[in-house]
């Protein structure tokens, strides 16, 4: 019975005027000074897209049974109410409902199945795991079979060898034990060596904190940096809503900077400067800059000189650079390359003490797409030992991240090498996945650009397309009439007609009056033509219905 | 140079305030000594596999097969995996469209939540709703999620037992809430006295704190006691009367070492009590795969079950869970295996029973050896470890030792534990990390070192303690008894 919780909480908050992190703060006028009025609207819209009263809010009254209980909606942590995460919001809830209906009553909808294009969850759509990685994980989970001769018939020789190596790095060879709170030292050594090989600059295993996916690492940094609403974090708009949600949960202020759709979601340093100055002038102490590269939901890959400008900007302004680099293996165009911010900073001659930099990496993305494992790490450089101690302490409260995820993080940073028994099958699997993703990105982008009123930048990297839709006035009016953001209205209609699940652009933030949605490029390649024709047919019908 | 974002003085104050002794000064010193080549006996964390406990075979077989599902198609798979493990792997893989590699529902796989609900129903004799069960990356994440939902600011208080497991104090500090302590009575076998609870609440209220929730740890950590049915009834009534959510940390429910007080869940008692309390008193219960005879700490698997929490609040908790996408899937399968173990007649059943009974019976003997050992030492008294994984002896420190500690700039029990570590390699956690009455000192050890090593460990502790007491005792008296 999960209704659109965010919508209701927004209503509640709107009533109680505690929409604090940006709007009600004394510095809220930050975003409404005349030169920034456009952006103020943008932000308002970003946070308030569907804030009109919910007609289905009759459920508000049904909680009377709970009226005397200590934990009620109006007495829980307001920061919990405030945070939002659209990737799993209203549209997904509707999709789950439709899926149930299809199961109970096949043929009840004009499609046979729900196609989840809302979330970067490749294996749920049929992507196969890399065999070598899974062999090693299975052996580490059940080391009792390592010595059996039958095992050699079932597993590759190098996976057996790698499992032995990994087990030897775990104190007591105990995969069922809590590890060091930063992660198993031997695995961190491997990861550091992988970073070094990638960047050509040294990496220190003591700088690495293994985490249950990249998200907890982001939370940890936000927790560390945020003292109150007066602390701001510069975030791209559009952004991956983990950032807005985490900032809201920790009670800080999101200071937006805008990616320019017209220049392929380019990042303008002058806009960064403007946003920073405006925030400062309103008493916000801006503490960090988030950069997502390759971009989510926007798919752009930053050029190296742009990265250099960003590094200089952070250095000059004393900002921590939070670099979300989880899509580093997902590059689809020959004219772009991934460069880690650490490599860029070191190439510019900035050393450990010159810039504070955190790089996030995950086992969930790339060609491996092992979302269910919850493995990831952050590499923190440019922090004093006492800060490091504080990060370690906070990590230790949760004891450690899961060991299977830790092992996998070491594997992705040190995959089979030329000459290893598994190398050929590994690289064939990897190349097949990446080249197929590139083809899917291209096909979908072309199809989207062929639709009336739709423009779509190419996905240079990551796993998403973020097309802009020029919605007819009548569609916007129809959306307003049912108190729904127009892009949510479109996404809902798309889902109801085709079973395709996308995330409305308002969940990521967008320039006011523009409408987008995010669609992953992850459905299996043989399904893409059918998706395109369903999407095209729907869009045509939608435009016919609402045009002129 | 300008002040930088992450300069120490610019950090979130709540982060600085938070303390987590289980991995604090003693642990760091022990790690240093280990690097220098000294043999360290880690008894600071309830981490059984790190001390040589072997994992149960069957769950490891099932999870290995789920990790490498291509093995299921290999005609030779039966050579090293039994048929019931193969069947169970297929059972769990059928619950997910993307195997172990896909995010699950943010609350965990529905099929496994259903198995958890069936387990609770069987254990308690009352129905359990899978929609109110959330799987988590270990119980700690669940505790953090629930406390984050409750705590709005420093005006919100959480009743926490003292001594307590420092997860609670650390999380409350991180979230900026107020810890309201209630003391467990050492002389009454760490009993929970309702009069004391009332006092704590009254005092907190007089300071303007809204007390919103109460934590119980049953069986106790670090104190090892099992709550009686009567005591649980009192606690639930108290929570009901004072409008508190009860947070029941029941992660040690398999770890029971006596027969007089078996584990009873707070949920069962709540339901036994009938309406109105069974319909109104709010309860969140926590469980894990890290403890019991499983001890699968490294997997980070856990769940919480909510009772009498309004659907709208459940939605908010779901929303926050969804920001973390999903708990790790291998650990969800461990949880499924734990709550739905093998049945008589299964091929692997006998082995499973042999392994799990072996572990539990040995833990029971170790609990006895350890508490007997402590009680045979000079100036040491220790309640019997009825459950959980820890002994929490009181060390009556002579005044000279307390003076020496002060001189060294150490809390007296930290001073004692450091000396113990340097002399014997036994790494413990000082009682001050858990909270204790003023002037009283304890340490916590796990009962997890291998059984065959136990006599030697206790002998080496006794020798150290004798020498320590000899050095500092001048027969003028002790720290308070």
UniProtKB/TrEMBL annotation, chain A:
Pathway: Amino-acid degradation; L-alanine degradation via transaminase pathway; pyruvate from L-alanine: step 1/1; Photosynthesis; C4 acid pathway. CDD domains: AAT_like (cd00609). It is an enzyme of class 2 (transferase). Keywords: Aminotransferase, Pyridoxal phosphate, Transferase. GO terms for molecular function: L-alanine:2-oxoglutarate aminotransferase activity; pyridoxal phosphate binding. It comes from the Eukaryota. Its EC number is 2.6.1.2. Homodimer. Belongs to the class-I pyridoxal-phosphate-dependent aminotransferase family. Alanine aminotransferase subfamily. This is alanine transaminase. Its cofactor is pyridoxal 5'-phosphate.
From TrEMBL, chain B:
Its cofactor is pyridoxal 5'-phosphate. One of its GO terms (biological process) is photorespiration. It catalyses: glycine + 2-oxoglutarate = glyoxylate + L-glutamate; glyoxylate + L-alanine = glycine + pyruvate. Residues 87-453 form the Aminotransferase class I/classII large domain. Keywords: Aminotransferase, Pyridoxal phosphate, Transferase. Transmembrane segments: none annotated. The keyword NADP does not apply. Coiled coil: none annotated. GO terms for molecular function: alanine-glyoxylate transaminase activity; glycine:2-oxoglutarate aminotransferase activity; L-alanine:2-oxoglutarate aminotransferase activity; pyridoxal phosphate binding. It holds the Pfam family Aminotran_1_2. GO terms for cellular component: peroxisome. Pathway: Amino-acid degradation; L-alanine degradation via transaminase pathway; pyruvate from L-alanine: step 1/1; Photosynthesis; C4 acid pathway. The keyword Transferase applies. Homodimer. Belongs to the class-I pyridoxal-phosphate-dependent aminotransferase family. Alanine aminotransferase subfamily. This is Glutamate--glyoxylate aminotransferase 2. It comes from Sesamum alatum. The lineage of its organism: Eukaryota, Viridiplantae, Streptophyta, Embryophyta, Tracheophyta.
């Amino acid at each position: 019975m999960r209704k659109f919780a965010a919508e209701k909480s927004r209503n509640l908050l709107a009533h109680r005027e505690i929409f604090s992190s940006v709007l009600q703060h004394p510095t809220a006028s930050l975003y409404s000074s005349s030169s920034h009025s456009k952006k103020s609207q943008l932000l308002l819209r970003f946070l308030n897209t569907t804030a009109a009263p919910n007609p289905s809010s009759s459920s508000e009254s049904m909680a009377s049974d709970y009226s005397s209980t200590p934990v009620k909606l109006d007495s829980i942590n307001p920061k919990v109410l405030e945070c939002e995460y659209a990737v799993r919001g209203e549209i997904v809830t509707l999709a789950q409902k439709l899926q149930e209906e299809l199961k109970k009553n096949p043929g009840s909808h004009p499609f046979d199945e729900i196609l989840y294009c809302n979330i970067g969850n490749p294996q749920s759509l049929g992507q196969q795991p890399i065999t070598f990685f899974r062999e090693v994980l299975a052996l580490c989970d059940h080391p009792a079979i390592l010595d059996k001769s039958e095992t050699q018939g079932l597993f590759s020789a190098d996976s057996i060898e790698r499992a032995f190596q990994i087990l030897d790095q775990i104190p007591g060879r105990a995969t069922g034990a809590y590890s060091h709170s930063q992660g198993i030292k031997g695995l961190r050594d491997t990861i550091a060596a992988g970073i070094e090989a990638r960047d050509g600059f040294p990496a220190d295993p003591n700088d690495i904190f293994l985490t249950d996916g990249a998200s907890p690492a982001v939370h940890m940094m936000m927790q560390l940096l945020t003292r109150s609403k007066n602390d701001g974090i510069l975030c791209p708009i559009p952004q991956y809503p983990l950032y807005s949600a985490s900032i809201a949960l920790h009670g800080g202020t999101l200071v937006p900077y805008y990616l320019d759709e017209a220049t392929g979601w380019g990042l303008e340093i002058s806009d960064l400067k403007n946003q920073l100055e405006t925030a400062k002038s309103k008493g916000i102490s801006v503490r960090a800059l988030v950069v997502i590269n390759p971009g989510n939901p926007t798919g752009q890959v930053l050029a190296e000189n742009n990265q250099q400008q960003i590094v200089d900007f952070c250095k000059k302004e004393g900002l921590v650079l939070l670099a979300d680099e989880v899509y580093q293996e997902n590059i689809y165009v020959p004219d772009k390359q991934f460069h880690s911010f650490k490599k860029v900073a070191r190439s510019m001659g900035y050393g450990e003490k010159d810039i504070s930099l955190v790089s996030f990496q995950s086992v969930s993305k790339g060609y491996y797409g092992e979302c269910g494992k919850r493995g990831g790490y952050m590499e923190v450089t440019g922090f004093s030992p006492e800060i490091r101690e504080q990060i370690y302490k906070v990590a230790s409260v949760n004891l450690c991240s899961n060991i299977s995820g830790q092992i996998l993080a070491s594997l992705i940073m040190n995959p089979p090498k030329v000459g290893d028994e598994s190398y050929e099958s590994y690289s064939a699997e990897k190349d097949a996945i990446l080249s197929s993703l590139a083809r899917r990105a291209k096909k979908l982008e072309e199809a989207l650009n062929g639709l009336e009123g739709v423009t779509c930048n190419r996905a240079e990297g990551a796993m998403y397309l973020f097309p802009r839709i020029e919605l007819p006035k009548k569609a916007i009016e129809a959306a307003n009439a049912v108190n729904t953001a127009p892009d949510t209205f479109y996404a809902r209609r798309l889902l109801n007609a085709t079973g395709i699940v996308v995330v409305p652009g308002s969940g990521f933030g967008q320039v006011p009056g523009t409408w987008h949605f995010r669609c992953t490029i992850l459905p299996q390649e043989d399904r893409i033509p059918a998706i395109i024709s369903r999407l095209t047919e729907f869009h045509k019908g939608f435009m016919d219905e609402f045009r002129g | 140079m300008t002040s930088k974002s992450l300069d120490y003085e610019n950090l979130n104050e709540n982060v600085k305030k938070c303390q987590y002794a289980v991995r604090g000064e003693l642990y760091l010193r022990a790690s240093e000594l280990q690097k220098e080549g000294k043999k360290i006996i880690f008894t600071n964390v309830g981490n059984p596999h790190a001390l040589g406990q072997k994992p149960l075979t069957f769950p490891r077989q099932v999870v290995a097969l789920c990790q490498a599902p291509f093995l299921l198609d290999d005609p030779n798979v039966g050579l090293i995996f039994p048929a019931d493990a193969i069947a169970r792997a297929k059972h769990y893989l059928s619950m997910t469209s993307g195997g172990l590699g896909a995010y699950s529902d943010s609350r965990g796989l529905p099929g496994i939540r259903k198995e958890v609900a069936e387990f609770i129903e069987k254990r308690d004799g009352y129905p359990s709703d899978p929609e109110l069960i959330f799987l988590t990356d270990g119980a700690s994440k669940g505790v953090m999620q629930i406390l984050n939902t409750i705590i709005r600011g420093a005006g919100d208080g959480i009743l926490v037992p003292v001594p307590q497991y420092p997860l609670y104090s650390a999380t409350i500090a991180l979230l900026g809430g107020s810890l309201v302590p209630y003391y467990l009575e050492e002389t009454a076998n760490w009993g929970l006295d309702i009069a004391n609870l009332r006092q704590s609440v009254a005092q907190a209220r007089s300071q303007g704190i809204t007390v919103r929730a109460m934590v119980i740890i049953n069986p106790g950590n670090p104190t090892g006691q099992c709550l009686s049915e009567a005591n649980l009834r009192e606690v639930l009534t108290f929570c009901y009367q004072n409008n508190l959510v009860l947070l029941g940390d029941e992660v040690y429910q398999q770890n029971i070492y006596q027969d007089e007080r078996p584990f009873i869940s707070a949920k069962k008692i709540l339901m036994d009590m009938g309406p109105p309390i069974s319909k109104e008193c709010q309860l969140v219960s926590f469980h894990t795969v890290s403890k019991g005879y499983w001890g699968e700490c490294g997997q980070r698997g856990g769940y919480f079950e909510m009772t009498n929490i309004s659907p709208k609040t459940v939605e908010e908790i779901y929303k926050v869970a969804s920001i973390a996408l999903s708990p790790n899937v291998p650990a969800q399968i461990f949880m499924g295996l734990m709550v739905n173990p093998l049945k008589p007649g299964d091929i692997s059943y006998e082995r499973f029973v042999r392994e799990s009974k072996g572990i539990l019976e040995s833990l029971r003997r170790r609990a006895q050896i350890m508490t007997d050992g402590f009680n045979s030492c000079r100036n040491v008294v220790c309640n019997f470890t009825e459950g959980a994984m820890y002994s929490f002896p009181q060390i009556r420190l002579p005044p000279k030792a307390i003076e020496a500690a002060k001189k060294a700039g150490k809390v007296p029990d930290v001073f004692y534990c450091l000396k113990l570590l340097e002399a014997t390699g036994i790494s413990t956690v000082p009682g001050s990390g858990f909270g204790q009455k003023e002037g009283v000192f304890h340490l916590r050890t796990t009962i997890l070192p291998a059984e065959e090593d136990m006599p030697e460990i206790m002998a080496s502790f006794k020798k150290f303690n004798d020498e320590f007491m000899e050095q500092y005792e001048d027969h003028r008296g002790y720290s308070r008894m």
